[in-house]
Amino acid sequence: MTKAAVIVFPGSNCDRDCKTAIERSTGAKVDMVWHQETALPEGLDLVVLPGGFSYGDYLRCGAMAAQSPVMREVAAAAERGTAVVGICNGFQILCEAGMLPGALLRNAALKYVCRAVGLDVVNGQTRFTAGYAGQREVTMTVGNGEGNFFADETTLDRLEGEGQVVFRYRDNPNGSARDIAGVINIKGNVLGLMPHPDRAFEPELGSADGATLFQSALASA
Amino acid sequence: MTATAKSMAELAQEYGLKPEEYDVIVRRLNREPNAVELGVFSVMWSEHCSYKSSRKHLAKFPTKGPRVIQGPGENAGVVDIGDGQACVFKMESHNHPSFIEPYQGAATGVGGIMRDVFTMGARPVALLNALRFGDPSHPKTRRLVAGVVAGIGGYGNCVGVPTVAGETNFHHGYDGNILVNAMCVGLADADKIFYSAAPAADLPVVYFGSKTGRDGIHGATMASAEFDEDSDEKRPTVQVGDPFAEKLLIEATLELMASGAVAAIQDMGAAGLTSSSVEMAGKGGVGIELDLDAVPQREEGMSAYEMMLSESQERMLAILKPGREGDGRRIFEKWGLDAATIGRTTDTGRIVLKHKGEVVCDLPLAPLSDDAPLYDRPWTAPTPPRRLEPHDAPAPEDYGAAVVKLMSCPDMASKRWLWEQYDRHVMADTLADSGTASDAGIVRVHGSRKALAMTSDCTPRYVQADPYEGGKQAVAEAWRNLTAAGADPIAITDNLNFGSPERPEIMGQIVRAIDGMAEACRALDFPVVSGNVSLYNETNGAAIPPTPTVGAVGLIPDYARRAGFGGLKAGDTLVLIGETHGEMGASLYLRELFGREEGAPPPVDLALERKTGDFVRGLIRDGTVRVVHDLSDGGLVAAAAEMAMAAQVGVTLNATSHPHAHYYLFGEDQARYLIGTDDPGVIISKAHAAGVHASVAGLAGGTAFASEAGLFDIPLDVLAQANEGWMPRYMG
Questions:
Q1: I need a labelling partner for B572 at 20 to 30 A (CA). Which of A162, B171, B229, B487 fits?
Q2: Does B428 sit within 8 Å of A143, measured CB to CB?
Q3: ipTM above threshold 0.90
Q4: Which residue from B420, B427, B430 is facing A113, i.e. has the nearest CB?
Q5: Judging by beta carbons within 10 Å of its beta carbon (0-12, 13-18, 19+), is residue B323 exposed, middle or buried?
Q6: What residues of chain A score a pLDDT lower than 50?
């Protein structure tokens, strides 16, 4: 049986959503791991950093969470090749921790935005997107105030050149550079994205496209 | 405080107590109270805490029913939703603070209502809000809208509870007093509901959450008075919210409850430590002794008075079972919350407060509640306006222009600008929200096939015209919206917003609106389980339109059998359920197109409402229909236009047999629904068998919103642009 862990920071609020989404879409066993833990469970195939406001995020989103004890273990697991997904606030944390390039800035319209978004699967060859099997467009929802992806032009060129841009907005909701919604590290095992696959895992929720992401991540384990 | 410089009687008046109320205190105590004691009395006897003007009339509401576990009187109402589960909900106003400081006022309104719900042992699963702003052209309106919306979003989004539904109106009657009514819905195990009554003496009283500061002192008193031109000076009485602290508080509270350590619990809301300690001890019939030096404090040198009256947010008071303080410490430490044992329950029936080694307050608890003023204020019955006759409402010169104007007026225009700022999807159980074509918000009961439907409703222009009929209508519309989603309506929470009860004509509005609501609740088996009263919503003598907001919850047994109004397909027929006479009184049509606010509101026939609604719900439940919309503001035209825009498919409405087409198209007759179906014959024959009126109203197809007789023919994209365009343009 495949095994996943969801990291729980005090202000995480999508931790249960991630657990439910993974369980229902893959049947994997999901452990909840408190942010003060200094070790991850054995034999993990996937680590998820969920959305929310990890430590209130009154300063820079994810900046404090990136320094928490458990993040050293998450980084070590990523080094060993374990798949890591950061969703929304989790993406911000991965950027703050230096595990992904770029940063998430305040939305261009200076407002929180919650809406369904169409996404292009730019790179369908990653371990997180292989299951889309040629499906070019997927639907998920965003809910963020600081989801505006930013990196310098050289970095953006490099990300595009190396296939590290995984998802792109069809109708950019927050001003992200080059419509980037999700990026992967060069090694191909750490993904960050602002849209929520954890809110799109059943048709009743408006889309089941998020389930494929979790299925892919665990199928390749 | 500078109590020495003033007599206690003068200070009492400053704290909002009437001279005769002060006399009662002195008589009961057989002495003058000191300043701290006076503070305690003044907040407990404020309108906000004591309901002294409304209590007599609130007693008319039906509050019992087969599903009611807990009615009014606790932090929130509790209803049984089967399978050992309960739904806990309440709506509450934060009007006065939101006008003075919109961001913090609205944010702390959301925080306060969530605390009421999780204090009962429920996890909050949905938020709603009912907002009334002044005229869009009023210089303050735009800033208030922006601030309130940002505040609601800033708080709810961070805590991680979806904001799924709401209503927003604009009217010059709210220029000086906006309304911010927030509702929270939670889920709990029916056998694990927590209450505030202290069960015994000699138990530890534990404070946890944020530290106490000087914010919000006398907030409850402020909320019990009118505004004048100096109201901006009341900003220091507005509390400041910290949603991250609330998130921690929710998790810690639910964990503490699950540990079995809690004997009684109460949040510190209006009147803070005073009302929480007085209510816990008073309801339990015990006494309470607090050592204020132990209270976690944010500022130095706080007086006993300031600590007792502070309305600092995100604080809880729990009475723990003997020997369980260790559980508390472990949980508070995990969540990083301040906590302290600040006292014990006693058997004295008194509240005793110690500060710096001295007793600063020693009052019998009974008079604080038992002797709270109860007013039977004089009231004058409002004169209902006359029913409009045919020809009273002119036909539009240009039907097409009229439809576009109606669908883009501030009350009808899309509120996407605001609800896109609310996280509507967190918790991953939202099936319908403000962004869905649905008459109610729908949230799954996690891990089950059940779902809760919820709505907030009031049509203030009806209540203004005739408080009794308007009160009935508010309840009936909430019932109808739940029905249109396919839910069994269960119960309501009421949020009564009015002007000053000391004016007989306003008191008349209060009394008659409650009479009408109570009648509708009885007729529809729709009990009131919680509520809130907000009076003195007036500035310089001008009162708001009477606004008794109804928040309602219903149960969908299997969410596969639910309805929305977005699924219309080309070729579908629109079937109008219910009778249309063409009620134009107090209609949106008259107001928006002719600037006329007159006439009797549409009467609500409650028996017909029930029969029609039960029929429609039956069609949804047996799988016959999935596309249903209730008719309300703007009548048939508005409902059909919304269905067309949601599905992006044209609609052509029938030419009418009514002698005046505009009465048929824009009239706001109650107890009506519009159904989209590919088999109208079966619905019409079922309706006739059930004794319900049903007729074909139009056909879906094409790319225009039109009428058969060529009265109007509007390209759908033009209509949608008008509907979507107003608010972003207004907010800039």
A1: B487
A2: no
A3: yes
A4: B420
A5: exposed
A6: none
The answer to whether the beta carbons of residues B493 and B93 sit under 8 Å apart is no
Instruction: Please list every residue in chain A whose beta carbon sits closer than 8 Å to the beta carbon of residue B430.
Output: 205
Is residue B713 packed enough to be buried (19+ CB in 10 Å), middle (13-18) or exposed (0-12)?
middle
**Minimal C-alpha gap between A13 and chain B (Å):** 5
Using the beta-carbon criterion (under 8 Å), do A10 and B247 form an inter-chain contact?
A: yes
pLDDT at B238: 74
For A45-66, the pLDDT digits (tens) are 999 999 999 888 887 888 889 8
Q: Which contiguous run of DSSP H or E holds residue B160?
A: none
Contacts B150 to A, Cβ<8 Å: 111
**What percentage of chain B reaches a pLDDT higher than 90?**
90
Choice among B48, B171, B218, B629 that is catalytic: B48
Q: pLDDT of B663-677, one tens digit each?
A: 999 999 999 999 999
Closest CA of chain A from B156, distance in Å: 11
- Is the Cβ of B415 closer than 8 Å to some Cβ of chain A? no
SS3 category, B520: helix
Output the CA torsion sign for B195, B198, B204, B207: positive
Q: Which residue of B425, B427, B443 is the best one to mutate when testing the A interface, meaning the one whose CB has the most A CBs within 10 A?
A: B425
- Asked if the C-beta of B248 comes within 8 angstroms of chain A's C-beta atoms, the answer is yes
Distance CA B731, CA B726 (A): 9
B94 flagged as catalytic: yes
Q: B636: part of which helix (H) or strand (E)? A: helix B635-647
Band the pLDDT of B2: cuts 50, 70, 90.
very low
Reduce the DSSP state of residue A54 to 3 states and report it: coil
Range name among B182-186, B190-194, B579-583 with the lowest pLDDT average: B579-583
Beta-carbon separation of A53 and B158 below 8 A: yes
Nearest one of B100, B142, B347, B394 to B233, comparing CA atoms: B100
Structure confidence at residue B47 (pLDDT): 86
Specify which residues B341 forms β-bridges with. Answer: B206
Q: How confident is the model at residue B234 (pLDDT cuts 50, 70, 90)?
A: low
What structural domains and CATH numbers belong to chain A? 3-219 (3.40.50.880)
- DSSP, residue by residue, B354-387: EETTEEEEEEEHHHHHHTS-----------PPPP
A171 touches chain B (CB under 8 A): no
Task: Using the predicted structure, report yes or no on whether residue B110 has a pLDDT greater than 70.
Answer: yes
Length of chain B: 732
Cα–Cα dist B284/B126, whole Å: 31
Q: How many CB atoms lie within 10 A of CB B54?
A: 24
Tell me which of B103, B247, B251, B423 to substitute to probe the interface with A (most A C-beta atoms closer than 10 Å). B423
pLDDT of B71-98, one tens digit each?
Answer: 999 999 999 999 999 999 999 999 999 9
* Cα–Cα distance for residue pair B95/B536, rounded to 1 Å: 10
Comparing CB atoms, the residue among B421, B424, B428 nearest residue A17 is: B428
Q: Do A16 and B427 touch (CB under 8 A)?
A: yes
* Structure confidence at residue B229 as a pLDDT band (50, 70, 90): low
Q: Are the beta carbons of A11 and B428 separated by less than 8 Å?
A: no
Q: Which residues does A109 contact at the CB level (< 8 Å), separation at least 6? A: A174, A175
B389 CB contacts (<8 Å, ≥6 apart)?
A: none
- A13/B247 Cβ within 8 A: yes
Closest Cα to residue A94, out of A187, A211, A190?
A190
Mean per-residue pLDDT over chain B, rounded: 95
Residue of B nearest to A21 (CA): B428
Cα–Cα dist B681/B624, whole Å:
12
Choosing among B114, B125, B244, which should be mutated to test the A contact, i.e. which has the most A CBs within 10 A?
Answer: B244
Q: Determine the Cα angle at B252 with ends B246 and B253, to 5°.
A: 85
